[in-house]
Amino acid sequence: MSLLVVYDEEGRLLEVERDYEKISQRLASIGIRFERWEAKAELPWSAGQEEVLEAYKEDVDRIVKEFDFKSIDVVSLTPEHPKKEELRNMFLSEHTHSDFEVRFFVDGCGTFYLHPEDKVYVVLCEKGDFISVPANTKHWFDMGTEPFFKAIRFFSIPDGWVANFTGSDISKKIPSHDQILKLR
């Protein structure tokens, strides 16, 4: 189940929302696009990039055309990944991008932390969730200590994922992905 949790900048809990429609509306109010997609075929965890993109072809084609994306890939991480800690740490500090950060979760889950103004909007994204974070939005991502997710990533710049770190320590004040999972 998708989840939205809102904190103030000191990490005090302000709001918890579990209803998908309300989550989508709340995120839209801060410029974040959040949708639920359905695959026509059930995919095994072992499904590779070609199978995943084919299963979601209609949605992927629509989004590629709408945003004029230049490349797409599929990323997946499991608790057995040898670089899981290194990869997790790469995304844990607040940063922005000069491009949209767009993800569709095919399986598993991960947590986006959005800091557009004076609140932090924590979005637990699970299988079926599509999220589009506009360029220059302060945010970070946590996949947890035992990551398990597969996601389609969309890029409109040739370099792909390029972060501009803010230097803020706010991510240390807000509960981690593992703690957010307990709120479901």
Describe the structure.
This protein has helices spanning 20-28, 49-55, 57-67, 84-91, 177-181; strands at 3-8, 13-17, 33-36, 71-77, 95-96, 101-114, 119-126, 129-133, 139-142, 148-155, 164-165. It has 184 residues and is of the alpha+beta class. The model has no long low-confidence stretch (mean pLDDT 92).
Q: What characteristics describe this protein?
A:
184 residues; alpha+beta; Jelly Rolls; nine-stranded antiparallel beta sheet; two-stranded antiparallel sheet; globular
* Main sheet specs: 9 strands, antiparallel
> How confident overall, as mean pLDDT?
92
- Ends distance: 7 Å
**Gyration radius, to the nearest Å?**
16 Å
Gross morphology is globular
- Low-confidence runs of at least 5 consecutive residues: none
CATH topology grouping: Jelly Rolls
Subunit arrangement of the protein: single chain
